[in-house]
Design a protein that fits this description.
5 helices; alpha+beta; two-stranded antiparallel sheet; 2 domains; 22% strand
Length: 200
């Protein structure tokens, strides 16, 4: 095998090895530039995630209250308290108070009444809580993110929606997002859109 001589635009013979080296040098520089851009993008994404974590919090839908509400559903289902004793309907339980608070607040922010919360689902090991409820013979979900548990990978995969409240309609195994927002006071409008879409 031999290297054939090459000529530049002026007809001057150029060493092929020199051409190869220049090509490899340009590729190496471009790869380095891409790596630099990737690192810069990661820094920007990390800054964005920290900004969301510092400025987004759903005070009345906080993870602790929702967790107690979820425990209450378990207690009712099993007719036992946290200590394994039979549930005493006359006794005041913190879990029950939290459940009633969440139920009433969900009704308030969605602008509806007569809902039945059927389950509260822990999503992705604490990343969010899905409050599933029945309303007008349909199943709905309000997903509440646990802000401190949202990872940069979640943000990279799905964007800012992982920090938003998300309202969904459920039918069998199909879960369809109606809308999402950072503001609780926008949920009633989103719920109304869902009602018009699925109940009309």
């Amino acid at each position: 095998m031999s290297l054939e001589a090459a000529y530049d635009g002026y007809g001057i013979n150029t060493n092929p090895q020199f051409i190869f080296d220049k090509c490899e040098e340009r590729i190496t520089k471009k790869k380095q530039a891409i790596e630099d851009l990737k690192n810069e993008l990661m820094l920007l994404e990390d800054q964005a995630v920290q900004s969301y974590k510092n400025h987004v919090y759903y005070y009345k839908l906080n993870p602790d209250t929702i967790r107690y509400a979820r425990v209450w559903l378990w207690m009712v289902k099993n007719n036992k308290d946290n200590d394994g004793n039979k549930l005493d309907k006359r006794k005041k339980y913190q879990e029950k108070s939290c459940f009633e608070f969440i139920r009433d607040y969900v009704k308030e922010i969605l602008g509806i009444s007569d809902i039945e919360i059927t389950s509260i689902i822990d999503v992705n090991w604490g990343q969010a809580n899905d409050i599933e409820f029945s309303y007008l013979d349909h199943t709905w979900r309000l997903e509440v993110p646990t802000i401190k548990h949202v990872s940069i990978k979640d943000y990279q995969n799905y964007g800012s929606i992982v920090f938003k409240l998300r309202l969904c309609h459920c039918k069998e195994h199909l879960i369809e997002t109606i809308g999402s927002t950072f503001e609780e006071n926008e949920l009633a409008d989103i719920m109304q859109k869902g009602i018009e879409k699925y109940l009309s």
